[in-house]
Amino acid sequence: MKFLEVISSFSSLIAIVSAVPASLPITKRAALDDFIAGQTSIAANGVLANIGSMGARSYGASKGLTLASPSKSDPDYFYTWTRDSALVFKALVDRFIDTGDTNLQLEINNYISAQANLQTVAGPTGGLSDGLGLGEPKFLPNGSAFYGLWGRPQRDGPALRATAMVAYGRWLLDNNYKSAATDIVWPIIKNDLAYVTQYWNQTAFDLWEETLGSSFFTTAVQYRALVEGSGFASSIGKSCDDCDSQAPQVLCFLQTFWNGEYVVSNINGEGEIKRSGKDAASILASLHVYDSDAGCDDATFQPCSPRALSNHKAVVDSFRGFYAINNGIANGSAVAVGRYTEDIYFNGNPWYLTTLAAAEQLYYALHQVDSAGSITITSVSLPFWRSLYPSAAPGTYKSNTGTYSSLANAMRTYADGFISIVQKYTPSSGALAEQFDKSTGAPLSAAHLTWSYASFLTAVAARDYVIPASWNAGTPKVPSTCSASPAKGSYAAATNTAWPDFPCNTATSVIVTFNVLASTSPNQNTYVVGSIPELGGWDAGKGVKLGADRYTQDSPLWYGSVTLDAGTRFEFKYVKTDASGGIVWEKGQGEGGTANRVYVVPKGCEASVALKDWFTS
């Protein structure tokens, strides 16, 4: 996500698997399906690679903290954001619940422990005693405060973090770990809910960290956090009375962003850029308030609601023909989607995550109408439906009718089109940056953006009808009069991070990442060479070449990864080479400097490890 000069948000992912209903068949599109199959693994690994401290691209990040990107310059995203981390881990929690991957659970536990500590870190916005510090948007990779100029406070992070932890807390309860839910997870959630109840009616910087005012995205995720936070509290024998009193008022305020055609994403403030209000943040908000049991509720802007569909059309159409790569694409067909048309960050381009979000909303909408067994077209949603199906008319169409099938298939084709756009502009490596060029489609801005990878996973999960659990959105009644009387929150440090011994699946293979600080000249490269075939069998010409894209004078980092069988013992050294064929082996280890480095790949739950070495001259 871009922030005054830097970074990222995310979406929901996987929790309860629902078989694709027979009434809504999935049309196989071989080229797209093949891309999705390959890219899903790349995206999953891409997320994990950026999580400290064992991720392949996370050198410098503490355990459980997620880097927005390993990029350290142009732009510098080498920080951890509360919002972005919460969105990533909501995706990972849902994925863990769906797959049972215990390696993901280890990451989730580390994340929660790290957040317990992060809540206590005082920074420019304040500390924990009055909750103000919870509005601090980002921290250094080691978890300490960031004091540079920034758009602060940001009030969506605590709400999103509470949502991610509630999802995991429910799993703990369902699997007989109530004490962990009550004693470890709840105290963190309680602080975040207190922050929301106390500060929801105060202005803050928006999702993109540029506009100070009231944000539709922030308000929407705050409402969800209060509703499901109260429900979770009840499930563990606690209560959140302030959640119950404030949620209706937050919902009431949420309605004020709707102008009759689309969501005006930011109100009550002036930003650095004058905007129309048409903003992909509103589509992302629809994803994060999605509830499989809520139907097409307008008040909560559910993905299939008339308001959300009308807004989807307004936002997407604002980019139709706006970028050169969108020229010639017909109305009703997918286009590359950016943040908002007035965007000037990196000269304003499409983003992978916003284009994916456009698809994800439609996949969720398809699930909702299929669950309802009908599609209802209103005067508000009619322009959206007519852009896909010109003969669409107001009315309700049951799932056993030809009109329903035509409408549903048109929506699915449209949704797949956004994935195809991402496919077209994804490099052969599968690496997802933040943006792609509006004229050429080339990747731009921060490389390996964690949010981009997570957004791919959530969009594909939605396409496959792998649906997050309900948060009990229901069809709430909006108060006739909005009130702005926030609660007074109370806060306390969450000190218990003693996790129970969860069963795990022992990893048979492990990603081993080599990180070495090695000062080199411009014409030199660094390799890791060792006693096993994967490291060249002591042949320097066959060793593993390390990357230097994060190399700086202060931190001359070379890094790279190999996958090895658990229990493998090997010896190795680091080697510098130059263009003329010169080879410099590092000095040996131990007394006399003659011994090789020795490592044994651990046998355990972790599927990745990271070595941190210095080149010995």
TrEMBL record:
<dbReference type="InterPro" id="IPR012341">
    <property type="entry name" value="6hp_glycosidase-like_sf"/>
</dbReference>
<dbReference type="InterPro" id="IPR002044">
    <property type="entry name" value="CBM20"/>
</dbReference>
<dbReference type="InterPro" id="IPR011613">
    <property type="entry name" value="GH15-like"/>
</dbReference>
<dbReference type="InterPro" id="IPR008291">
    <property type="entry name" value="Glucoamylase_SBD"/>
</dbReference>
<dbReference type="InterPro" id="IPR008928">
    <property type="entry name" value="6-hairpin_glycosidase_sf"/>
</dbReference>
<dbReference type="InterPro" id="IPR034836">
    <property type="entry name" value="CBM20_glucoamylase"/>
</dbReference>
<keyword id="KW-0119">Carbohydrate metabolism</keyword>
<feature type="domain" description="CBM20">
    <location>
        <begin position="504"/>
        <end position="616"/>
    </location>
</feature>
<dbReference type="Pfam" id="PF00686">
    <property type="entry name" value="CBM_20"/>
</dbReference>
<dbReference type="GO" id="GO:0004339">
    <property type="term" value="F:glucan 1,4-alpha-glucosidase activity"/>
</dbReference>
<keyword id="KW-0326">Glycosidase</keyword>
<feature type="active site" description="Proton acceptor">
    <location>
        <position position="206"/>
    </location>
</feature>
<feature type="active site" description="Proton donor">
    <location>
        <position position="209"/>
    </location>
</feature>
<dbReference type="GO" id="GO:0000324">
    <property type="term" value="C:fungal-type vacuole"/>
</dbReference>
<feature type="binding site">
    <location>
        <position position="150"/>
    </location>
    <ligand>
        <name>substrate</name>
    </ligand>
</feature>
<keyword id="KW-0732">Signal</keyword>
<dbReference type="InterPro" id="IPR000165">
    <property type="entry name" value="Glucoamylase"/>
</dbReference>
<dbReference type="Pfam" id="PF00723">
    <property type="entry name" value="Glyco_hydro_15"/>
</dbReference>
<dbReference type="InterPro" id="IPR013784">
    <property type="entry name" value="Carb-bd-like_fold"/>
</dbReference>
<keyword id="KW-0378">Hydrolase</keyword>
<dbReference type="InterPro" id="IPR013783">
    <property type="entry name" value="Ig-like_fold"/>
</dbReference>
<dbReference type="GO" id="GO:2001070">
    <property type="term" value="F:starch binding"/>
</dbReference>
<keyword id="KW-0624">Polysaccharide degradation</keyword>
<protein>
    <recommendedName>
        <fullName>Glucoamylase</fullName>
        <ecNumber>3.2.1.3</ecNumber>
    </recommendedName>
</protein>
<feature type="signal peptide">
    <location>
        <begin position="1"/>
        <end position="19"/>
    </location>
</feature>
<comment type="similarity">
    <text>Belongs to the glycosyl hydrolase 15 family.</text>
</comment>
<keyword id="KW-0325">Glycoprotein</keyword>
<dbReference type="GO" id="GO:0000272">
    <property type="term" value="P:polysaccharide catabolic process"/>
</dbReference>
